[in-house]
User: Fold this.
Amino acid sequence: MALIVQKYGGSSVADPERVKRVAQRVARTRRAGHQVVVVVSALGDTTDNLLELASKVCRRPPEREMDMLLATGEQVSCALLAMAMHGLGVKAISFTGAQVGIVTDRAHTRARIQDISAQRIQAALARKWVVIVAGFQGMTRDHEITTLGRGGSDLTAVALAKALNARICEIYTDVEGVYTADPRIVPNARKLPAISYDEMLELAGSGTQVMQARSMEVAKRYEVPLHIRSSFSRATGTIISKEVKAMEQVAVSGVSLQKDEAKVTVCDVPDRPGVAATIFTRISDANINVDMIVQNVSRTGFTDVSFTVSRADLARVLRVTRRVAAEVKAGRVIHDDGVAKVSVVGVGMRSHSGIAAKMFQALAKESINIEMISTSEIKISCIIRKDQAVKAVRTLHDSFELEKLGKSSARK
Ligand code: ADP
Ligand code: ASP
Ligand code: MG
Assistant:
């Protein structure tokens, strides 16, 4: 008998029939003698619909109220799944994040988990119940409802797996695992049998939607064993684990795309120590994540500083940046939301050379201009025009011959 955490994403519970199918799958695991903790996302597009609803009543809804609204999506799905389990004669109980003691900070809409007091889950498991937890949400110490950022049910699942010391955390989704690229964009993308925490963290951080980036930070830190797999088939998916030597043989294991990027440029920034620190401290104090930063060479004592943020943060970052630009006596602040970021990722980059050159050549061959570049030990990212993004992903997938990796597997 093992303790297993299973997370089902929105597409896996998109309608009542799918909820019942998930219930059957959970019931099978329970009947095999395992203890099961299930984390569910909101049904289908519920979260998007709730966001749209909010935008219809208020241009800039207070984030506290946004969390009150968004958290309801997962509350619906966890209750429905518990009912479906009862329909199958399996004892199950649903809980909100708050009820199972998922304590977060106060950063509404992007809260971080600080603590989980899993006693209530343990008690229900001891009574042989299946425990169903609403994903994506928690509660502050002063009892305010929070949500964990888009895709945050992954984080709920990983954090619970860690807190409960689960044998495995299974992430059920609408594809059969982690592919060499988004199968929606690259039809001959291959399913990877295994991938390292570092690679999945970089892929997720650069736009690969299948796992939320913050959930991967937690998974990596605590080495939570993960299995990404399809809720529509029994096939083995992708195991995410610590790096093993064999993984290094492949220079690039995936290509990712982030379409919702925006570039901000502060023009004519005085070129003296402390100015960049002031600008980026203000932005970080506003809880906005900056991705790439490029500072041009100064010729006249002034320089242009460009950086990218998620498009969702653009309006907020412009407000903060305009204020701080005036404060440091810089010039105009301009922005461009017609950009995208393509990245290639692979632990093998540590031991293979020439990957950046190969990436730039592949993009050049397709006349794709590179506007910004950033690198980490195992990732190279380029900012390009958004309307060339799909072409870029396909050409990079071809150039690095990723269709020769892993197994081909049809998307569900
Ligand atoms: P869920 O609703 O189950 O959380 P998501 O929509 O968040 O699912 O993530 C699954 C989607 O991620 C897939 O439908 C797929 O199109 C997309 N995706 C992007 N890149 C990849 C990749 N490299 N491997 C697998 N899926 C990917
Ligand atoms: N329902 C939330 C979202 O759509 C959380 C999740 O699905 O993981 O972002
Ligand atoms: Mg998701």
